[in-house]
Amino acid sequence: LSEIAFDPANENVIYLGSDWLWKSQDGGDTWNVILDSIGTYQTVAINPSNSKEIYVSAGGFLFKSTDAGQTWQSIPLPEPNSVIPWIEVDWEKRIMYTHIFSQDLSRNVLGIYKMYF
Questions:
Q1: 39: domain CATH number?
Q2: Which domain holds residue 73?
Q3: Average pLDDT for consecutive 10-residue bins of the chain (117 residues)?
Q4: pLDDT of amino acid 112
Q5: What is the reported pLDDT for 85?
């Protein structure tokens, strides 16, 4: 277990990040996998004004859903072969901040990136 996030519009909807991304729609009584394992899901960010909009980070991947996790779109990372251990979103300004470091030891990539969406 690495992340838990609650839908701000519906207290019965819970997202759980582990080796898979899980979703419960009944307050945690039952769970369904909504995104397969590609690494540990580190961050789940839910738009407080539109809870169907969700961003998740998982190792070297960043995903976006606009339908509450039914479908997912991969978002290209600002640096190749990088890892995103966390994301933070300013929903009003539509800015995502990410901490990124390189998996490639021959490159020295480390930093905070600001992405507009």
A1: 2.120.10.30
A2: 3-116
A3: 92 94 98 86 91 91 95 85 86 90 65 82
A4: 80
A5: 81
Burial 21-33 (b: 16+ CB within 10 A, else e): bbbbeeeeeeeee
Instruction: For strands 95-102 and 82-90, give the pairing.
Output: antiparallel
Helix (H) or strand (E) run with residue 95 in it: strand 95-102
Q: Residue 82 is encoded by which pair of tokens?
A: 């990088």
Domain count within the chain = 1
Length of the chain: 117
Question: Hey, what are 9's tokens?
Answer: 């519009």
Tokens of 70: 């039914």
Residue type, 42: Q
CA–CA separation, 61 vs 36, rounded Å?
12
Q: Residue 53 corresponds to which amino acid?
A: E
